[in-house]
Amino acid sequence: MERKATIAKLDQKMAQVIMETILDRGPGVKWDDIEGLKDVKQALMENIIYPQLRPELFTGLRSPTKGILLYGPPGNGKTLLAKAVATECRSTFFSISASALVSKYMGESEKLMKTLFTLAAIQSPSIIFIDEVDSMLTKRNAEENEATRRLKTEFLIQLDGVGSSNTRILVIAATNRPYDLDEAALRRLTKRIYIGLPDAEARAGLMRKLMKQVDSKLSTYEFDQVVQWTEGYSSADLNSLCKEAAMEPIREIPPSKIMELRSPSSVRKVQVGDFQKVLQFIRPSVSKGTIQEYHNWHKSCGGPV
Questions:
Q1: Is residue 184 part of a domain?
Q2: Are residues 97 and 172 in the same domain?
Q3: For 29-44, how does the pLDDT look when each residue is reduced to its tens digit (9 = 90+)?
Q4: What is the structure's pLDDT at 94?
Q5: What's the pLDDT score for residue 166?
Q6: What number of CA atoms fall less than 13 Å from residue 113's CA on the CB side?
Q7: d(Cα 189, Cα 69) in Å, to the nearest integer?
Q8: How many domains does the chain have?
Q9: I need a labelling partner for 65 at 20 to 30 A (CA). Which of 136, 166, 241, 271 fits?
Q10: Do 127 and 248 lie in a common domain?
């Protein structure tokens, strides 16, 4: 009854926007869906999942953090990790892009932010995931407009209020540009976890999972070669690479013959040569210079992993 009364006091238009476009009712992503990142998963287990599932054990000095920052190069699973956490915790998952919040709801952003945190408290345990948080929490300067400043202030106020009652809300923010974040935001996002490029084991696991979707003819040696060739590739890059390699056998078939194929088994299997060909134009999307920037920031301001 109290919950319905609280919802009734909210701006119904704002509440409807959140319930329809921001609330993710079924993330459905599990740990096993994410290859590699063992240390990251362990850090998230200790800081999020255990405290959510056994809150009585995590009090006092063991109290869980209110805000977590996931940072690193794009295309390496920050959003998937947040969804997996929500699934493992059996929590309500609110997902929003900060850039969309700033642009689409300009003028009403503050009210939307306040309503979001209120609904998260009502639906707790909840996780609020804010992607591209750098577009909302950039370093303050004299040139930023008043609406952006008010939104930033409202977010910081709401984040300060998390954990002040019996509600269980966790804020997970993700960014590809951690060095652009305001210091006030960093002070509140106390746990910072670096999500780097996949290592050889993670690349192999991801590529095996992707290549199960098509018939392939790669020996163990050839597969290991492809894994070595893709050092420096992000998870998104690997997905594009496997997709293009899988298309190579199709491209060899004359257009006039494609409609005559009786079954998918008529298409030849994917071979190592297909990967060699597509590797010529599917290149790493993250430069070595950018990776060095992340490493430098990680050493000075980052956290584990």
A1: yes
A2: yes
A3: 778 788 878 888 888 8
A4: 84
A5: 58
A6: 28
A7: 6
A8: 2
A9: 136
A10: no
59 shares its domain with 121: yes
User: Which tokens is 133 given?
Assistant: 């948080």
Nearest to 31 by CA among 85, 72, 75: 85
Indicate whether 30 and 149 sit together in one domain.
yes
The answer on 227 and 137 residing in a single domain is no
pLDDT in tens, 83-99: 888 787 777 888 887 77
- For residues 212 and 221, what is the distance between their CA atoms, to the nearest angstrom? 17
Contacts 24+ apart (CB under 8 A), 60-65: 63/163, 64/170, 65/170, 65/190, 65/191
3-state helix/strand/coil string of 159-178: HHHCCCCCCCEEEEEEECCH
In which domain, by residue range, is 172 found?
A: 2-197+294-301
Calpha distance 299→305 (Å, rounded): 11
- CATH number where 187 lies: 3.40.50.300
Amino acid at 201: E
- Whether residue 289 lies inside any domain: the answer is no
